């Protein structure tokens, strides 16, 4: 059966997300590098990221009431504006940003919390099980497209303008793009809240015997363990291996180009009845592609790892994301509690990210050799296999439902 087409609101939501992604790809790729160059400290990068993850999770939980009971589009815009404030603050602080690592991380986490909470709720409302894989495929494709050009341009500008001037320029360009995305967001339909926000909803789900979220939650946390380290350490490792921002930009260009094609193909071809095997292949292969780094951590082996990850990550993330949101929408009652469930999903991701980040904070400040980095990446990179095991019954259930009788 052909997948349902995406409506106008879905398309506009994808455009707003793409602009937000471009602005973050321009500057966000280089924030860990910027802080590391100023401080030469792996601990600072870790604590900056720690503040970001914690505040993102808290913002999801607290802002859930706003999104549930009021106009959720204001939360989306607040996230975009706060992202602009974050980069403007880094712009003003310059090299002194290294003295404010945790507060800056918290500001960035708050911005991401407001944006992604509202985005995920609107995404759920604008899509349905028949077009969700297609939407996720397009979201991944556009995210990859942003990653193709933006970091490459940033790396080129930073290298050409010799550092500080280049960083100031890319931070300024990001501010302009954030402003454009805020303006476009006013064409998204107003979505006023309904019902009353339940603060302890997630705790009750996990405490209830037989509740499916008791198995889905650790699957989501397993995804977070990998994300918590990979989201910043890979780019930082590429820079420390090359000492060249332009090469980091080129690395992002190549890997994102591969991811763009892969997301497009998986989003187009993935069916509900093959999510189980597709996801298993994905979680195994994103661990296998780390193995070249045990031989040598160089630009070449990092590129092999990056291309391999880009090829196989859609096999993992698209069915994972779609199945979680299918669970949220499995009944009218759970759909009415979508904001609380999305907060619960984020709590799983945050807990997983903090677990992964804790391993980073224990290992790398003491030993940041190439071997230590590789073992850390491998240790957290195999965790999604456990996530597949937890989510497997949901995929099997969906597969049985799609089989002809």
TrEMBL record:
Domain of life: Bacteria
Database matches in SUPFAM superfamilies: MFS general substrate transporter
Membrane topology: Multi-pass membrane protein
Record GO cellular component, one term: plasma membrane
Molecular function via GO: transmembrane transporter activity
Location in or out of the cell: Cell membrane
Pfam families: MFS_1
Keywords: Membrane, Transmembrane, Transmembrane helix
This protein's name: MFS transporter
Protein's organism: Paenibacillus arenilitoris
């Amino acid at each position: 059966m052909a997948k349902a087409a995406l409506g106008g609101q879905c398309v506009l939501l994808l455009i707003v997300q793409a602009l937000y992604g471009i602005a973050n790809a321009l500057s966000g790729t280089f924030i860990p590098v910027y802080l590391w160059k100023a401080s030469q400290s792996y601990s600072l990068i870790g604590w900056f990221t720690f503040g970001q993850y914690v505040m993102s999770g808290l913002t999801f939980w607290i802002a859930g009431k706003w999104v549930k009971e009021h106009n959720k589009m204001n939360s989306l815009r607040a996230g975009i504006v706060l992202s602009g404030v974050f980069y403007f603050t880094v712009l003003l602080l310059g090299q002194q940003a290294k003295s404010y690592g945790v507060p800056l991380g918290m500001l960035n986490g708050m911005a991401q919390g407001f944006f992604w909470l509202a985005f995920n709720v609107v995404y759920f409302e604008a899509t349905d099980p028949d077009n969700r894989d297609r939407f996720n495929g397009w979201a991944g494709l556009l995210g990859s497209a942003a990653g193709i050009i933006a970091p490459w341009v940033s790396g080129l500008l930073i290298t050409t303008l010799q550092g500080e001037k280049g960083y100031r320029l890319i931070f300024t360009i990001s501010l302009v793009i954030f402003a454009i995305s805020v303006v476009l967001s006013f064409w998204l339909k107003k979505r006023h809240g309904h019902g009353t926000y339940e603060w302890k909803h997630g705790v009750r789900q996990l405490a209830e015997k037989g509740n499916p979220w008791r198995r889905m939650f650790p699957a989501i946390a397993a995804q977070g363990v990998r994300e918590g380290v990979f989201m910043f350490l890979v780019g930082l490792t590429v820079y420390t291996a090359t000492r060249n921002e332009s090469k980091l930009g080129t690395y992002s260009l190549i890997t994102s180009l591969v991811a763009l094609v892969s997301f497009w193909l998986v989003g187009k071809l993935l069916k509900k009845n093959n999510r189980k095997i597709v996801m298993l292949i994905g979680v195994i292969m994103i661990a296998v592609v780390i193995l070249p780094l045990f031989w040598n951590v160089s630009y070449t082996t990092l590129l092999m790892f990056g291309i391999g990850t880009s090829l196989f990550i859609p096999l993992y993330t698209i069915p994972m994301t779609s199945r979680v949101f299918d669970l949220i929408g499995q009944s009218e009652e759970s759909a009415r509690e979508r904001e609380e469930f999305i907060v619960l999903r984020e709590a799983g991701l945050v807990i997983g990210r903090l677990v992964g980040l804790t391993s980073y904070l224990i290992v790398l400040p003491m030993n940041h050799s190439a071997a230590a980095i590789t073992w850390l990446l491998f240790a957290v990179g195999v965790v999604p296999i456990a996530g597949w095991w937890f989510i497997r019954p949901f995929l099997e259930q969906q597969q049985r439902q799609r089989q002809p009788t």
